[in-house]
Amino acid sequence: MTDPTQDLLPEGLEDRLPQSAAAATRIERAMLQAMGAHGYDRVRPPLIEFEQSMSRRMDGVMTRHMFRFTDPASLRTLALRSDMTVQVGRIAATGLCDAPRPLRLCYAGQVARIRGDTLEPRRENLQVGAELIGRDTVEAAGEIVELAIAAVEAAGATGISVDFTLPDLVDTLADGPFPLDGEARKRVRRELDTKDAGGLVEAGGADYLALIHATGEFSSAAEKLSALDTSGVLETRIEGLRRIAKRLNGRARLTLDPSERHGFEYQSWFGFTLYAENVRGELGRGGTYCIGGSDEPATGFSLYPEELVEAMKASEKLGAKLFLPLGHDCPAADALRAEGWRTVAALDESDDAATLGCTHVLDGGAAKAL
Amino acid sequence: MTDPTQDLLPEGLEDRLPQSAAAATRIERAMLQAMGAHGYDRVRPPLIEFEQSMSRRMDGVMTRHMFRFTDPASLRTLALRSDMTVQVGRIAATGLCDAPRPLRLCYAGQVARIRGDTLEPRRENLQVGAELIGRDTVEAAGEIVELAIAAVEAAGATGISVDFTLPDLVDTLADGPFPLDGEARKRVRRELDTKDAGGLVEAGGADYLALIHATGEFSSAAEKLSALDTSGVLETRIEGLRRIAKRLNGRARLTLDPSERHGFEYQSWFGFTLYAENVRGELGRGGTYCIGGSDEPATGFSLYPEELVEAMKASEKLGAKLFLPLGHDCPAADALRAEGWRTVAALDESDDAATLGCTHVLDGGAAKAL
């Protein structure tokens, strides 16, 4: 007897069986189609790169999350990609450095990380995204948020919510009206993350207290944020958010959590998180940033549709199957396939239409329900 | 100044820029569509597995070709997949062990290997394939060859050639009319590989000489092979090949190289290699085999469309782009996207339609050529 555990997959890795694979494929294509329709050209970077090339375009901490190994060809360290945004940034800065700006690129592919976590034990994910390279304006941000919504809606998501954030908010305030030195800045950020009013005051961030309450439904939260901004240092940011919100005009429920930082460490003035009804956790996020290594401004989003696949796979249609008996009419089968039928040909007398999941059988050149 | 070499990709790995990515995406989808239409359900195995789980389903030598690394979660060795056939075999033997047979599965994904070679320096490849699990009969082989042709034709390949082989030919003859012991068998195989008549005689394989000439155009080569088979031990195999050839009926140029072994080490009675006009090297291969670990019979093929992408990328159409001026009519743009237009929206006054690769501009609610 063989050891059944030898067929197990490593923790956090899984096979997609037909229903799940069909959902993932349909969702990936719908998202790529939506991005393509808005002028975003797909690029396909490799699974593996030099660790150094990836790490200099992302924070050092992130490289610790990558699977790494030595390249026998170069004797340098390679890494399995954990994020395709970094790769698209590299492409924009190298192979497409002479392409006109703004440059619109999109991508879809598998990414892996060395450890999962409690909230998200998966170590492999499908990542799908778009990058608008050369611009980080309000107009760019508006296009990107709208496109992210269009992409997830094309994939079948409904009840979309978008949570806005201002990733450089604390820095902007600390450099301006509410001064904080480096150490205090870190402490204030930490207390804002946990929304702990007492801790915030203790950390020397009493001026920042109102930020804790400038959250929730977008227009009222933006009002509160505006009220706090007596110096006007946030005026263009708040105005930018309002213009994006106006542009979205009811397409999504909008909220604001201006001091939300988690996952926005590399964004500049604007960030957003996307949610959909009946989909666990967040569906993706995006914002404005500078491409690591080239410092070109850019705006983009990444979607991680795993939970959307989970939500949709049970009802995913694989297409009705038509059984082709032995000695069937081949041109008739060709014609039915061209119409969209999926055929299953008998290989010998033992093959049975119903057992093989067919709902129809080819009879007299036409599909007949079983 | 930054070091420009830090942006280089490792040897044998490359980015697909828009033309190449569009060709790869179209080709991959066309192949998946053809396989889906013949009743093959897609599965999506993970990028990474336990090395042991992969290696016990493939020859030990092959695992040396895989990128390997230690899993911090299990402390076991993981491998980046170098072949998806092995993974589909595992799925058939585990997650889908209770699914009715014959089981039709297909797949498409990136695979990587640790070293390229002179003929094929790429270390990452797109692999696309189909597996018919539970059967290795002439009918199964016929369906699989026909499907492989349909898949590459759907992807745009023309002038298809199929080269048949009989992977267990030497074993069948050596166990029967032309006995050879283990050592002599190896030597005879080696000399047949190089088609060296003198070497073959020296290796004790004089009986096998005629095999060197039973190659080329299918019907005449099959005649020669049949003439050599006085004991009749190859009769069912030759008859099987003839039935497959008849079934293909002019859809491809057919040749026979009965003792070809390269890449068919794990096939049983039947193997084939696929070529297309204007595509360098082989496009794919397939045959009958036993699934490693479960010993279930199966028939399948793997396509490696990299060179087809190379041949087609220059003429790949990315779709005409329609420029949307500032303050454009959004519902009109939605309608044109729904018709298949790709739009590029102006973000500010500096954006120029022609510079951004647009051939048309939205004017009065309609697409107008620039």
Quick overview of this protein structure:
With 370 residues, chain A is of the alpha+beta class.
Notable features of this structure?
homodimer, 370 residues, alpha+beta, BirA Bifunctional Protein, domain 2, 3 domains, nine-stranded mixed sheet, four-stranded mixed sheet, 22% strand
Task: Give the helices and strands, then pairings.
Two copies of one chain form a homodimer.
Chain A: H1 18-37, E1 41-42, E2 48-50, H2 51-55, H3 60-63, E3 68-70, E4 77-80, H4 84-93, E5 103-112, E6 124-133, H5 138-154, E7 161-165, H6 169-174, H7 182-194, H8 197-202, H9 209-213, E8 216-217, H10 218-228, H11 235-248, E9 253-256, E10 267-275, E11 284-290, E12 297-303, H12 306-312, E13 321-324, H13 330-338, E14 342-345, E15 360-363, E16 366-369
Parallel strand pairs in A: 1-5, 7-9, 13-14, 13-15
Antiparallel strand pairs in A: 2-4, 3-4, 5-6, 6-12, 7-10, 8-9, 10-11, 11-12, 15-16
Keywords (chains A, B): Glycosyltransferase, Transferase
Protein name (chains A, B): ATP phosphoribosyltransferase regulatory subunit
InterPro entries (chains A, B): aa-tRNA-synth_II/BPL/LPL (IPR045864), HisRS-like_core (IPR041715), HisRS/HisZ (IPR004516)
